[in-house]
Amino acid sequence: MTATDATPTLPGRLGDPSLDLRTDPRAKPGLVAALAPFGLDGPAAEPPLTREAGRDAVAEAVGGLHDAFSALYANIPLDLPGDAPDDAVEVTETSVPSPDGHLIPVVLYRPAGVAGPLPCVVYIHGGGMVILDAETRVHDRWCRELALTGVVAARVGFRNAWTELGPHPFPAGLDDCATAVRWLDDQRGELGLTRIVLQGESGGANLVLATTLRAKRSGDLDAIDGVYASVPYVSGGYAWDRARKLRELPSMVENDGYFINCALMDLLVAQYDPHARHTEDPLAWPYFATADDLAGLPPHVITVNELDPLRDEGLAYYRKLLAAGVPVEGRVNLGIVHGAEMIFRQALPAEHRAAIADIRAFVDRLTVDHI
Questions:
Q1: Which CATH number fits domain 26-40+49-365: 3.40.50.1820, 3.40.50.12280, 3.30.450.40, 3.30.530.20?
Q2: Residues 6 or more apart from 265 whose CB is under 8 A from it?
Q3: Which one, of 40, 141, 128, 42, lies nearest residue 346 by Cα?
Q4: Is 297 exposed, middle or buried (0-12, 13-18, 19+ CB in 10 A)?
Q5: Which of 35, 144, 271, 306 is paired with 369 by a 20 to 30 Å CA distance?
Q6: pLDDT, tens digit (0-9, with 9 covering 90-100), for 148-189
Q7: Neighbour-count burial of 93, counting CB atoms closer than 10 A to its CB (0-12 exposed, 13-18 middle, 19+ buried)
Q8: How far apart are CA 257 and CA 268, in angstroms?
Q9: Where are the domains of the chain?
C-alpha cells in the first residue's frame, strides 16, 4: 500500500466535487429512490439569480421557491401501514392577538378522548422563516403524529418573510412565535397544558432557538421547559467564501447541492434580512449566540443529518450550548438529507417514527414545574 492509497478520502463533495446523491455511497438508497420522481436525486437546481439582482427580483425568485416547495409538499406520498384515522386526533383552530393588531393562527392537536392535563409541543415549521405555510399536509401529519404520542401539539402560523401580500422581514416571524408561546404559557390551566416544549425543523428550528434566546432577554424564560431543534438553519452564512465555509462549517461544501444548496439558502437570507443589518444578531442567526446569551437556558436537543449542508452549524450550536453549561443532547441521522426524516415519511419510516418517539421521550425527561 502506498502513502497515497492510505490517505483517507474526504467525505462527499469535499473529496469529489462531482458527487451527488446518486453517487455518494453514504446516501440511503430508499431515500434517493423517493427523491428521483421529483428530480431531486441529482444536484439541487441553482436559483435563477443572486441577491445582487435587487430586492424585487429576489422576492419574485423566492415566491417561485415557495411555489415549488409547496408543490413538493402537496405531492409527497405520506401514507404508511397502520396509520391512525383522522378522528384519532381532535383539532381546534384558534388565534392569538399580536401587539401590533394582527391575529396569529394557532392550531391545537389533542389525542381524542384523552382527559386530563397533557404536555404541549409547540411546533414551528421549516422553510427558512421565509417560505412554506403552516397548514401543509406534511406539517399537519407531523402534528397529528406528535399528538398521538399523548401530547397537545400547537402549530404556530407565524408570518413568513415572503408572502403574496408583501414582505414581513425579521423580526416579524420571531415576534409571532414569542407572542404565541407567551399566550400558551398564560393559558396552561385553561388548555390543560403541563410542560411546554418548543420544536421545529430547519427555519423552524431557528425560530425555536431564537424564541428561547429572546425569552431569556425579556424575562419570559419560565414559559419554556425544553427545546428540540431539528436540522437547525442558524448561521445565515451561505454566501461566505469557500475558505470561511471550510474553516467554520465545511458541510456547506461537503453536502452543497444535496436536496438543497447554499445559493438557494442565501436568497432566503436576503428576503429575511433584506438590508443585511442582522448578519450576526443571534435573534436572527442563533449561530452567533455568546456563552452569556446561552447560560441558564432550559434543556435542549439538537439533531442533524449527515448529508445536509446545514449539519455543521447544528453541531456548532450544540457545542456552544454544552460549553455554556446548558443540558443538551445531540443526534446525528446517518445517510439522509436535510429534514428528510420529517418530509419523506414514506421513504424513511424508521427514521420518521424514531424522531417522533424521541421528541416524546425528551418531553418525558423534563422536570415538571408547572403542574
A1: 3.40.50.1820
A2: 128, 233, 238, 309
A3: 141
A4: buried
A5: 144
A6: 999 999 999 999 999 999 999 999 999 999 999 999 999 999
A7: exposed
A8: 16
A9: 26-40+49-365
Please, are residues 183 and 97 in contact by the beta-carbon 8 Å criterion?
no
The identity of residue 94, as a single letter, is T
Query: SS3 of 212, please?
Result: helix
309: cell is 449542508
H helix or E strand, kind and range, residue 318: helix 311-323
Give the mean model confidence (pLDDT) for residues 100-110. 96
Q: Is 277 exposed, middle or buried (0-12, 13-18, 19+ CB in 10 A)?
A: exposed
The 3-state DSSP class for residue 45 equals coil
Q: Which residues contact 286 (CB under 8 A, 6 or more apart)?
A: 206, 209, 210, 213, 232, 234, 317
Listed in sequence order, the residues at least 6 apart from 201 whose beta carbon sits closer than 8 Å to its beta carbon are 125, 126, 230, 231, 339, 342
Instruction: Look up residue 254 and give its three cell numbers.
Output: 461537503
DSSP-derived secondary structure for 57-76: HHHHHHHHHHHHHHHHHHHS
| 3 state SS of 112 | coil
- For residue 108 the three cell numbers come to 391545537
DSSP H helices in 55-132 = 55-75
Reported confidence tier of residue 115, pLDDT bands at 50, 70, 90: confident
Residues 193-215: tens digit of each pLDDT: 999 999 999 999 999 999 999 99
- Cα angle 12, 16, 22; round to 5: 60
CA angle 158, 350, 79 (to 5 degrees): 65
Taking only Cα atoms into account, the Rg of the chain, rounded to an integer number of angstroms, comes to 20
Interatomic CA distance for residues 57 and 65, integer angstroms? 13
Maximum alpha-carbon separation in the chain: 71
Residue 334, classed as helix, strand or coil, is coil
**Distance between CA atoms of residues 358 and 364, nearest Å:** 10
In the three-class reduction of DSSP (H, G, I as helix; E, B as strand; rest coil), residue 42 is classed as: coil
Rounded-to-integer distance, Cα 249 and Cα 70, Å: 28
Element (H or E) spanning 156, and its range?
strand 152-156
Q: Collapse the DSSP code of 133 into the 3-class scheme (helix H, G, I; strand E, B; otherwise coil) and give the result.
A: coil
